[in-house]
Sequence to fold (88 residues):
Amino acid sequence: MKLKGNFVIKKIAEETVAIRINKDIADLRGAISLKGSAETIFSALLEGLNKEDIINQLVENYHITKEEAANDTEAFLNVLYNNNLLEG
Fold:
């Protein structure tokens, strides 16, 4: 599981956004708003963590059950995949 392209995470007008960088130019068509656990999941993907590690990180950071963390992770990964931002 890997993000397609290079991304940076920035805070813009009190909102956290991941922006895809193509050939040293920001591609705002590849921008995605990150709220709540989405920011944690996206950051973990940038670090190269696998799905199980991401789930464990959500459990630890948000004090939720493993099932809730797995559901949140799967839902967000589907959003990334459906928007052609995720390989695999």
